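Q: Predict the assembly, please.
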Amino acid sequence: MNDFTIIWKNLFRKKLRTTLMLIAIFVAFFLYGMLASVGQAFDSPGSSDDKNRMVTLNKINFTQFLPISYYDRVARVKGVTQASHSNWFGAFFQDNKNVIVSFAVDPPTYLAIYKEFDMPDAERKAFLGDRTGLAVGRAVADKYGWKVGQTVPISSNIFSQKNGSHSWDFKIDAIFDNSKVKGRDGLMIFHYDYYNETVSFGRDNIGLIVFSTETPAINDAVAKNIDAMFANSPYETSTDTAEAFSKSFIAQLGNIKLIISLVVGAAFVTILLIVGNTMVMAIRERTREIGVFKTLGFSGQRIFTQIVAEALLLSLLGGLLGLSCAVPALLLINKISAGAISGLTVQPIVFVKGLGWMVFLGLVTAALPAWSAMRLNIVTALGRK
Amino acid sequence: MLYQLRNVSKRFTKAKETLTIFDNLNMDIPEGDFVAMMGPSGSGKTTLLNILGGIDKVTSGEVSFAGNRIDGYSEGQLSEWRAANVGFIFQFYNLMPMLSAAQNVELPLMLTNLSGAKRKENVATALNIVNLSDRAKHYPREMSGGQQQRVAIARAMVSDPQLLLCDEPTGDLDRTTADEILTTLQVLNRELGKTIVMVTHDPEAARYAKRTLHLNKGVFEDKMVMA
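A: Predicted assembly structure:
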């Protein structure tokens, strides 16, 4: 027998109470794992290593179009090495609940910029040469059980064809993975030309222009030049890095971080009060036993350590279980949403911060009862006075 | 001489009133003694037992154990001293409910440097002495009062302390069980040479001791208190 035996036995001496505390801590850290991971995913949606990747879009907002002619002009700006363009298509498959992130793009230039879209050479070649071709991210293909060579009807909740149909037939030429960020493959791309010649309105318009610069050092200068070039035109532009664009896009959804902080904070304060109060009661019930331990020769410091360790063990058991369960829960969400929120997984930083919170919770809830136990007078504890 | 108390006083201050439990008390306890301490409630016998056990401090005076002054010890020093020299037996057994009999007995050995194997051996021996070898894995709630008290005795003696302090060890037991417990204490005193100080209200229990001291209002009524 060692101190851990005593700590463990004390922790589970009242199984119902301990189970309820574990559930409370489990829920708090499950919530934390989920929300912090969502926050993390939103915080770095692009996570682009390409700091020289930039985006030009309509100054009003990203729902407004730009003329396709802007693309050529941007591509010729000094310092721009590669440019492409894309259109948000508003796609869904069969049911409008099955939303798929999809873009009409110029494949050769688009794939030259997004080098992380990793697909076999043969499939890449087939996709580039097929105007009705579709390149599908692995998560989307897996969700719908799609295979290369299959033809699938994709509908748009924005656009329609000249013949009145809202559905386009695409042949799946390629299935790609994201070689940089695992799980960031919940999207699909197809040829802008095919879209442009069949769409009933908005022809020769594009959603945004994406381009690479020679070096991140000239990003600001290039952005200023481009926006100046289109100043006072019917379609003024706003140019920024792809990373900044992603963040501003997320910002339009609301202050995700604040919402997450408030929810997690409220859960934590509640759990802190519940667990702290229960720990105080649990230790108070053991006053006489603590007196006996001290009578036997156990020092105050050793009893202090045992109580702190007990609270830490409780916090870590519930917390690790909660955080661990957030992992499959996020995988499930990823699968259901076909990777709509890219990078949605419990990142190491979330885990490390979670561990920190567990230790904090354990220490704070143990502080008062452990301190009281350490200073407890034996005679008082034994009720002998 | 194992224990010597010289001019020991103990006072409590409560609500600005000072209560004197005893004043200038003197006492000797030779090694191998078995002392029963009797007296009415409030006479100070439990306070005296606490002082002998190093869980309460004197207000003034000298307390010496085996020739060493312990009245000036810090809390930490007293903890170590208790672990090495004193075994306690309480009226209500005070076993840890979440630990088995063997684990309860092993508690004092956690404060020693003995190996796991040696600890198990000592626990088995202690449980054997109190005739509870077959109850080693039982929890306190699964045992009778007498059995629990025997576990408490095993716990008190497992680390081989020189002094056993018993506070009403049979106060919660029927006569037959009480006699069994007292016989066990007598065996520990006679055959293992343990020095025992026992507080009791029961004259029958006091008969098992080698001598009885009567404390009344903080004063010994007996003449043979000092050697």
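Chain A has a mean pLDDT of 86. The first helix of chain A runs from residue 3 to 11.
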